[in-house]
Structure formats: C-alpha cells, structure tokens
Amino acid sequence: MTSVDLTGRVALVTGATSGIGSATATLLAERGAHVLVAGRDADRGEAVVSVVRERGGKADFVAADLSEAESVRRLAREAVAPGGGHVDILVNNAGVFPFGPTEETPQGDVDAVYDLTVKAPFHLVAELAPGMAERGHGAIVNVSTMVATYGVAGMALYASSKAALNPEPDHVIQKKTAVIRFSSSVVPE
C-alpha cells in the first residue's frame, strides 16, 4: 500500500485522545500532517501529542467540548491558529454510545448523542469547509459504524446518529468553483 504524503497539511481530529481518534492522529502525523488533537481530557491529549512528537511528528492539543454549538465553532476558529491559519483535513471521530432499549432511553442521552455525533460535525464543517473550498483542496472524514446501515438490538440511538453522518458518496460542498468532497464514511472493523 502506498502512503500519501501529507507534509504541509493540517489535520483536526476530534475525539483524538483515545482509541480510533488517537490512532488516526498518529497515522496522519506519521504521513507528515501537523495534527491537532482535539478532546476534553488535557492529560490524555498531551499524551497523544507526546507520542506523535516522540515519533518525529508535529502535533498540538486543542481542548474541546463538543456538546454545544458555540463551543464547537470556537474549536474551529481556535484550530486554525496552531495550524498556520488553516485546516486541510477534518476527521469527525468523537462520539458516545449509550446502549439500551429505545423505549428506555432518556431524552438527555438522545440530546447528548446527537449534539456530539451529529451537530458538532455539522458546525465544524460549516466553519472549516469554506476555507478548504477557497484554497481548492480539503478532506472531511466522518467516522461511522456498520450498525448505521442495519439494525442491532439496543443500538438504535448510536446507529441513528452515525447514519446521519453518512453522506451519499458524491456529496459535496460547493463554494465558488472549488469542490470539497466528503469521504464515504469510514467504518472501522
């Protein structure tokens, strides 16, 4: 497999303080991107940044609470500063997954899951995609799940929130003449 050289690119990865987000941030840095590790926990975020730097990569931690729109928009505005004025790659990875029967799901859980998994990516795209379009390049990756395409008992809330992130493969954002393509959502195995 040929790896893509991302030298000079800036990647913002949400939920990057652990799991898939951490692995994604590390891989992007290994390929040359300056990675902005976004998450709530500064200690875990700085640990990811340290790993990236120890391996010769470039990374910074950006504290982020993705539970409300203004905080998400602030993250996007603040992310461009350590990124040299731009973000070229947005990886919407952050998510929560309370499992259980639909009829027993508290409204607070529904709101929390949709705020983080659906609304936060929407607001990040709204803030960052116009700059990508103006520069004529960019990538937006939504991390999803295979249960977004079929039913699994106890996973309706999580699956429905991830399904909302799955654009049609040809979904694009157009501004002027530049086109930013969304990836087909990445579904980890």
UniProtKB/TrEMBL annotation:
Q: Which SUPFAM superfamilies match?
A: NAD(P)-binding Rossmann-fold domains
**Recorded superkingdom:** Bacteria
Checking InterPro entries in the record gives: NAD(P)-bd_dom_sf, SDR, SDR_fam
The protein, known as: Short-chain dehydrogenase
Q: What is the originating organism of this protein?
A: Streptomyces brasiliensis
Q: Could you say which protein family the record assigns here?
A: Belongs to the short-chain dehydrogenases/reductases (SDR) family.
